[in-house]
Design a protein that fits this description.
alpha/beta, 4 domains, 8-stranded mixed beta sheet, 20 strands
């Protein structure tokens, strides 16, 4: 290297400088003055630039650092011991042990590297408060989980029952806002009794207060996956985080969520009710549909989320992660045998699904809610897909309001995170009757049809057996822009089934036939004529559907079609957003 020095540097000074610089930089040095004349040079001889004998470094932490370490240890110890002692009775882990369970492992069976707590933010929140409030009862930070970087928060139930106040709210909001910037998933480990009522000034109604949680939830929605695990009672404001999340896991005999506590419910309505009956896991799994998955304990909750996140990308700009494919649990050769020939005979659609998807890959969501429709993640040769399937084992697979709402939300979520959709259709259509009308069958049905219409991910629709009425619309039939509509030989597509059609069209004419045997024979003739008209061979002949395939080839057919259409691009009309959901 050439280095310019002052003109008045002597020759001996220049040489000394050149040798020192050569040793320091580990390179040959030439010194020049302003005129360009060389006044000194040195060649690097390869010796260590710090040739002097190293001195032993006996420096250790100062008293100041030791004091800081003691403060950190005290904060990490959490709230009073008496509250920590209560946790085992409730089946709970202390929050720091919970974090170690989530982020202190080996990455799980499918994980990439070790799970790691990368860093924590706001540990000293409320450090100078008059009360003892370690981390203000809330831990936030970043971690690696199952090989994926994510943001997380976790309430400390030993600090004011995990309640939220100004500093904790600030930490929560910062974590959400950073997730918007990084485009990484958010994990909420909730164990909170809600807002700290005696300290509400400064965080409740402020622009950057607790209400901003749900604004941020809304901004994050569809951008990054938000997964919430409930470990305790989440009441009032604390109950909104789990319902705003894309996926909510409740832990049995531990968690609950409700708009108000049992005490408040009794005061307002006079109703006496336990927290379990008001908002326990069974309530939200079977009746409200707010719980996607139910865990038996803390370890099981982690296992469920580990499996769930494997189907999801980090954000809406990315594709879901692929894995190595595995053969299905049961042979595809048996598909036609498990689908009954009679259109009204029930069977379990999982007997078809397990012959199509990779073994062990099915993760059903909201399994106890709207059971007439199955919503599940699975893989076909390692490719994540979202399955929407009618379940003939439940009320013949008719679509009820809760099932339609469940399907709509699942389709909407899959589309947000680029998960291709597989529809398996075997339904008599939307349920009729005064009860379902009061429950909003038209309102919920339109949401399912709207979600299916608006989804831009690759869609494959399979007519497994009956596809009657508007059921073929909701299940992404030919009019709903699927990449393919294929059918098994058992398939039928019609406005209604044969029995209903004959009754609707020919009831009067049949009633005029006095002879019972003659009337039955005529009914059978009409039934056979009708079924010929709605058979999928007729639909294929008229190119209503794309193909009739041998059932034993369904898996390979779907694999090929999903692979071929994985880069399909679909444009929606230029508008702000629809008004239906």
């Amino acid at each position: 290297m050439r280095i310019r020095i002052s003109d008045d540097t002597t020759e001996s000074e220049a040489q000394a400088i050149a040798e020192a610089l050569a040793t320091h930089f580990g390179d040959d040095v030439i010194l020049v003055v302003d005129s360009g004349e060389e006044v000194g040079s040195a060649t690097y001889d390869g010796e260590d630039r710090d040739a002097a004998e190293p001195q032993a470094d006996d420096l250790g932490p100062t008293e100041r650092e030791e004091a800081l370490l003691e403060e950190i240890a005290e904060i990490e110890a959490g709230g009073p011991e008496k509250y920590k002692d209560q946790l085992p009775e409730q089946g709970k882990l202390f929050v720091r042990d919970r974090i170690d369970l989530w982020f202190g492992g080996d990455g799980g069976e499918d994980g990439d590297g070790e799970d790691t707590l990368l860093f924590e933010d706001g540990k000293f929140a409320a450090f100078d408060a008059d009360d003892d409030l370690p981390a203000d009862g809330l831990i936030t930070g970043a971690a690696t989980f199952e090989g994926r970087d994510l943001h997380f928060m976790a309430n400390d139930y030993t600090v004011k029952r995990g309640s939220m106040a100004a500093k904790g709210v600030e930490k929560f909001l910062r974590m959400q806002q950073r997730a918007l910037k990084t485009g990484r998933p958010v994990l909420y480990l909730m164990d909170s009794s809600g807002g700290r009522i005696d300290q509400q000034t400064g965080f409740f109604a402020n622009r950057e207060g607790i209400g901003k949680y749900y604004y941020n939830h809304s901004m994050l929605s569809g951008r990054v996956p938000q997964i919430c695990v409930l470990y305790g009672p989440s009441i009032a404001g604390a109950a909104y985080t789990p319902v705003f999340a894309d996926f909510t896991v409740m832990v049995r005999n531990m968690s609950a969520m409700a708009i108000a506590s049992p005490r408040m419910v009794e005061m307002v309505t006079g109703e006496e009710i336990s927290l379990e009956d008001l908002g326990g896991p069974d309530v939200h799994a079977k009746h409200s549909g707010s719980a996607d998955l139910i865990a038996e304990d803390e370890e099981h909750a982690r296992e469920l989320v580990a499996k769930l996140i494997g189907y999801l990308p980090d954000n809406s700009d990315e594709d879901p992660p692929r894995t190595d494919g595995t053969p299905p649990k049961f042979s595809p050769d048996g598909i036609d045998s498990v689908v009954p020939q009679q259109p009204n005979k029930g069977y379990d659609m999982f007997d078809v699904i397990e012959r199509v998807v990779d073994a062990g890959s099915v993760l059903e969501l909201r399994s106890e809610y709207g059971k007439e429709i199955i919503t599940a993640f699975a893989r076909i040769d390692g490719r994540p897909v979202g399955i929407v399937a009618n379940q003939p084992a439940q009320r013949a697979g008719a679509i009820f309001p809760d099932a339609a709402e469940k399907a709509a939300q699942f389709v909407w979520t899959c589309d947000a995170f680029n998960v291709p959709l597989l529809y398996l259709c075997d339904t008599p259509g939307f349920m009729a009757g005064s009860g379902v009308e009061k429950d909003g069958i038209l309102e919920q049905g339109k949401k399912m049809i709207y979600a299916t219409s608006s989804a831009t991910v690759p869609k494959q629709s399979v007519v497994v057996r009956k596809a009657y009425g508007a059921g073929i619309y909701a299940m992404s039939g030919p009019a709903y822009d699927p990449e393919s509509t294929i059918a098994l030989p058992s398939g039928e597509i019609a406005i209604m089934g044969p029995e209903a059609a004959i009754n609707a069209v020919y009831a009067r004419k049949l009633a005029e036939i006095d002879d019972e045997e003659e009337r039955k024979q005529k009914e059978q003739e009409l039934r056979e004529e009708y079924r010929e008209d709605i058979d999928v061979h007729r639909m294929a002949s008229e190119v209503v559907i794309d193909e009739i395939i041998p059932p034993s080839t369904l898996r390979e057919e779907l694999d090929a079609r999903f692979a071929f259409y994985e880069t399909v691009e679909k444009d929606l009309p230029d508008k702000k957003h629809g008004t239906i959901i």
